[in-house]
């Protein structure tokens, strides 16, 4: 008998299943695709290890690292290669971020004073941040917060391509306290973000900020599926409807109907809304209000001798005034060990997002051609790539915009009146892998407790 049906076999659904099994429950994960993992996808092609989606686990947020340890993967975790320099495109050049930056905010004077990333007027304005009064609190956009604290150039050359770029979103719409609460708390603690960050500054971690796995992040998905009891994960199982009649009834597109005491929906807001509609119309509306944007990842392999740029670093971001096609690019084989055969490099470009909402209307060939033209120009690459891959991510990146926290609070209140129905996933309480894993496991403990009470 199934205790909890989990709709969605991405990392949220798999982590929830792992937690439920540990609690002695019997979950069933239903995934509409032919494979589990969601946006986590790793391919091995001709000696190249290609992460099509996320490629790193943030050390500062330990939930993903802890799960890897539970899965017996701790000995396989590897740090990023040195140097870990990230670049920003300005006036056609790749300008390194100042050393000792926290989310792009410089915390040491000398690297900040010498960087060509900002004008002298902007540097003076940014240093004045220590005397700018605290804001009124409450929700505001990343652009509003960073402009208020540091001025316009900080928004143009750092906040927009880096902070908003992480989420492929609009810097004037994404919620600062939702996505970067650390900086908001820093302002509230001392009245100054710079002062707080400097006081909290610790020596650089020897392993850097991120870890990965030699076989790509897909190793974590493979290990999860392998360690779950047989039959826990069902692929090609599209859920078409949900009903609550004492038990929860889950209807599949195949015509099959399943029942369980509890249901966990780990799907994106746009996919969750039609399932909630017959159960709670207002909850469905709230899910529809959570926007998602589409993007594509374009991967190229090329002979090292054809690339004039030294590729000493992790990659670059492209601010809007400099943008052609790419939002950002990463030097995969300079970032992680073992990702490309000897004599080759592996590069990834990112296109689409809020600034290019129609990206997936173009063909793979058109996307790859435009990305390659820009990448080869910026890195001085001669000739053509030896390998090209385009990965499409339709409506895969949720936008936690201003008002998101209030929306989730109302959604949670609605769910409180629907015992046995639970929501988790990247659309709701955190979009990075560690946040998603942490929330999925927390919500799974609540689902396990509900089943136990029943």
SSE topology sketch:
Elements: E1 4-7, H1 11-22, E2 27-30, E3 42-45, E4 48-51, E5 57-58, H2 63-70, E6 78-79, E7 86-90, E8 93-96, E9 101-102, E10 105-106, H3 109-114, H4 120-127, H5 142-150, H6 152-166, H7 176-179, H8 181-190, H9 193-200, E11 210-212, H10 218-227, E12 233-234, E13 239-245, E14 247-252, E15 257-260, E16 262-265, H11 269-276, H12 281-288, E17 292-303, E18 315-317, E19 326-331, H13 332-335, E20 344-352, H14 364-379, E21 387-398, H15 404-416, E22 421-423, H16 433-453
Parallel strand pairs: 1-2, 1-16, 2-12, 7-18, 16-22
Antiparallel strand pairs: 3-4, 5-11, 6-11, 7-8, 9-10, 13-14, 14-15, 17-20, 17-21, 18-19, 19-20
Provide the gyration radius in Å.
23 Å
The chain-level structural class is alpha+beta
Say how many strands there are.
22
Largest sheet: 7 strands, mixed
| Unreliable spans | none
How confident overall, as mean pLDDT?
A: 96
Helix content: 25-40%
- Fill in the CATH topology of the largest domain: FAD/NAD(P)-binding domain
- CATH domain class name of the largest domain: Alpha Beta
Number of helices in the DSSP assignment: 16
Please describe what this structure looks like.
This protein is of the alpha+beta class and 454 residues long. The protein is built from 16 helices and 22 strands. It has helices at residues 11-22, 63-70, 109-114, 120-127, 142-150, 152-166, 176-179, 181-190, 193-200, 218-227, 269-276, 281-288, 332-335, 364-379, 404-416, 433-453, and strands at residues 4-7, 27-30, 42-45, 48-51, 57-58, 78-79, 86-90, 93-96, 101-102, 105-106, 210-212, 233-234, 239-245, 247-252, 257-260, 262-265, 292-303, 315-317, 326-331, 344-352, 387-398, 421-423. Strands 8-7-18-19-20-17-21 form a seven-stranded mixed β-sheet. A five-stranded parallel β-sheet has the order 12-2-1-16-22. Strands 5-11-6 form a three-stranded antiparallel β-sheet, with no helix packed on it. Strand 7 and strand 8 form a beta hairpin. The protein starts with a strand and ends with a helix.
């Amino acid at each position: 008998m199934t205790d909890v049906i989990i709709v969605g076999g991405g990392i949220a659904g798999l982590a929830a299943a792992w937690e439920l099994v540990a609690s002695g429950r019997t979950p069933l994960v239903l995934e509409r695709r032919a494979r589990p993992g969601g946006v986590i996808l790793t391919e091995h092609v001709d000696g190249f290890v290609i992460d099509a989606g996320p490629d790193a686990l943030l050390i500062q947020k330990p939930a993903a690292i802890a799960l890897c340890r539970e899965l017996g993967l701790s000995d396989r975790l590897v740090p990023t290669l040195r140097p870990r320099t990230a670049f920003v495109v300005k006036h056609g050049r790749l300008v390194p971020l100042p050393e000792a930056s926290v989310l792009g905010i410089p915390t040491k004077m000398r690297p900040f004073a010498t960087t060509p990333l900002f004008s002298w007027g902007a540097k003076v304005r940014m240093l004045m941040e220590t005397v700018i009064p605290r804001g009124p609190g409450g929700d505001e956009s990343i652009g509003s917060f960073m402009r208020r604290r540091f001025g316009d150039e900080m928004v143009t050359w750092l906040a927009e391509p880096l902070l908003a770029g992480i989420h492929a979103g609009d810097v004037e719409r994404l919620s600062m306290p939702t996505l970067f609460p650390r900086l908001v708390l820093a302002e509230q603690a001392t009245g100054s973000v710079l002062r707080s960050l400097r006081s909290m500054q610790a020596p650089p971690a020897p392993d850097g900020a991120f870890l990965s796995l030699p076989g790509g992040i897909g190793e974590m998905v493979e290990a999860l599926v392998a360690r779950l009891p047989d039959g826990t994960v069902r692929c090609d199982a599209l859920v078409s409807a949900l009903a609550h009649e004492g038990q929860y009834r889950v209807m599949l597109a195949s015509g099959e109907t399943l029942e369980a005491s509890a249901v966990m929906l780990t799907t994106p807001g746009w996919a969750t809304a039609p399932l909630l509609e017959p159960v709670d119309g207002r909850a469905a509306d709230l899910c529809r209000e959570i926007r998602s944007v589409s993007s594509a990842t374009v991967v190229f392999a090329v002979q090292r001798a054809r690339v004039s740029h030294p590729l000493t670093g992790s990659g670059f971001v492209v601010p809007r005034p400099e943008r052609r096609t790419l939002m950002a690019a990463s030097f995969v084989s300079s970032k992680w060990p073992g990702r490309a055969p000897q004599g080759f490099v592996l590069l990834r470009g990112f296109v689409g997002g809020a600034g290019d909402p129609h990206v997936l209307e173009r063909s793979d060939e058109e996307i790859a051609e435009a990305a390659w033209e820009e990448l080869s120009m910026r890195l001085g690459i001669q000739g053509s790539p030896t390998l090209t891959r385009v990965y499409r991510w339709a409506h895969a990146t949720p936008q936690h915009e201003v008002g998101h926290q209030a929306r989730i609070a109302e959604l949670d209140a609605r769910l409180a009146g629907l015992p046995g129905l639970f929501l988790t996933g990247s659309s709701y309480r955190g979009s990075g892998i560690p946040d998603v894993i942490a929330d999925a496991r927390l919500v799974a403990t609540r689902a396990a407790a509900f089943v136990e009470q029943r």
